[in-house]
Specification:
Elements: H1 2-31, H2 38-49, H3 58-70, H4 72-81, H5 83-105, H6 111-138, H7 151-156, H8 162-186, H9 190-220, H10 225-230, H11 233-254, H12 261-279, E1 283-286, E2 292-294, H13 302-336
Antiparallel strand pairs: 1-2
Membrane topology: Multi-pass membrane protein
Protein name: Cytochrome D ubiquinol oxidase subunit II
GO cellular component, one term: plasma membrane
Length: about 325
Amino acid sequence: MLYVVITFLFLAIVLYFLLGGADFGAGIIELFTSEKNRSRTRKTSYQAIGPIWEANHMWLIIAVVIMFVAFPTIYSTMCTYLHIPILIMLLGITARGTAFAFRNYDAIKGENTQKIYNKVFVNSSFITPLFLGIIAGSVISRKIDLHATDFSSAYIFSWLNWFSVTVGLFTVALSGYLAAIYLIGEADNEKDVRRFIVKARMMNIAAVIFGGMVFLAAELEHIGMAHWIFNNPVSLTAVIAASLSLIASWILINKGKRKIIRIGAGFQVTMILLAVGYMHFPYMVMIKGGQNLSIFAYHATEKTIQVLGLALLLGSLVILPSLFYLYYSFQKKSEIV
């Protein structure tokens, strides 16, 4: 049953990045859009994410619950030493959701309040995936020091380092790329299609640049990320698959295949997550000094794992079909409209 719990955990993380990341990416695209085109970008984004934006955070909630119940030592370590970036990420999620709701459903849509909502929305859309990536980078950077004797060493430099920051920027670029690819298929005229293609290329270039910076920072800080990936057949295969899918995606874009490219973009990002995740599996947190927190060694009691695994299996029978039907319903509605 432990493998069932682990599967649900990693599935929730991947789906949150693919769906929630693209959700954040819509705000990132808006942030880097000229003032005259923002209303068009906003309209297309609402059509894509408006009806289901809240459902995307379900995957984060599932991941957090699994960590809390099944892997309490790992959960407490992360929440203790990374509580600052976690708090900023949660504040970003809250601010973004609030701004999204108010700028759409505000009873009195004054110009000044709309400007505030727009600024909160686009900036929190950037900040949230930035700190999500920082957290992801921190757990494998070996910067968490369980024996730190001062506040900055324990709670600041555990995440405020070049490697973690570059992972955060890479996450922002990937989120923007996913959103741009998804929005290409939602655009209802050729002018908007061309604009989103340009945005996708920009975010693609940014992802390549920041991805290179991740490897450079890893080498400078002696993390050995390149060694982990290129000496691991699974991670290396995933990197090659991601590269090939990127080429295929741009070929399909040039041929006007606007819908199918979403699958290619999702596959590409999934392969990146697989490459990074598999290289240090089963270690969830890598500690300074060589200690690693393994999900096989630091899990809850067998009875707890069994109950949680059963709950996840039964819950998925209800939640997953309902969620897929929600996506399907609003997709069909947008096609009719």
